[in-house]
Amino acid sequence: MKTFTTQVTNTIPLTPTIKSIQLSAPHWPGHIPGQYVSVRIISPEGYVAERDYSIASAPDTEQIELIVELLPTGEVSPILHSLSIGDELKIQGPRGTHFNWTNTQKPLVLISAGTGIVPFLSMLRSTKAAVANSTVTILASFRYDEDVLYLSELNDAHAAIHISSKLGRITEEILMKHLQLENDTDYLISGGTPFVESIRAMIMNQGVDKENIKLERFG
Length: 219
Fold this sequence. Notes:
Layout: E1 3-15, E2 18-24, E3 36-42, E4 48-54, E5 63-69, H1 77-81, E6 88-95, E7 108-113, H2 118-126, H3 128-132, E8 136-141, H4 151-156, E9 159-163, H5 164-167, H6 172-178, E10 186-192, H7 193-205, E11 213-218
Parallel strand pairs: 7-8, 7-10, 8-9, 10-11
Antiparallel strand pairs: 1-2, 1-6, 2-5, 3-4, 3-6
C-alpha cells in the first residue's frame, strides 16, 4: 500500500470534539466513495500508532478531508487535533473495497451514527448528478443537535434527510416510519459495532435480505 506525505491546508472545528482536517495530497490517485486511509503517527518518544479514518472528500480531487473525533485517552486523535496549517501527515491508502457505492440507480438508504456519516459525505459529494439519478434516503443519528455534522450540506443534497437527534434513539418503529424497507434497495450502515449490528437486525426483521446490506463498523 502506497504511503503519501500530505500537508495540512486547513483545520475546522465542527463541534467541541470533532474537527475537519483538510490535506493536500499531491499525486493522490483518487478513491471510491466509502474508502478510508490509515494515518500513522510517530510520537516524540518514538512510539508508532496507526488509525483508520474514512474519507469525507469527493473522490476526484487531490484534497483529502478527514473528520476526527477527539478521544481524550486516544493515541492518535489528540495529535491530529493539534495539527496546524503546514504540518505534514503521512497516510496510506486508499483502502477498503466492501463499503463502496457506485451509482447503480437503485434506491439507496444510508444510516449512520455520529461520525459514521463521514463516508456518506464522500458519496454525496462524488457528483450531485450521480446522486440525483438515485433515490437516496439518509437517517443520521447524533446524540445532540449541536453534534450534527454538515447539516446545511446534507439539506442541499438530493436526498431525503432524517436527523435522529430530533427523532430520538433509532428504533424499528422509526425505521419503518421513515424508510421503505424493500429488497430492491441498497442499505449502507456506518457507526459503532453495536449500532450497525442492531440496525441490520431491525432491517432484516422486515424481510430485507442480508446481501443488500453493507456495514462499516468502528470502535
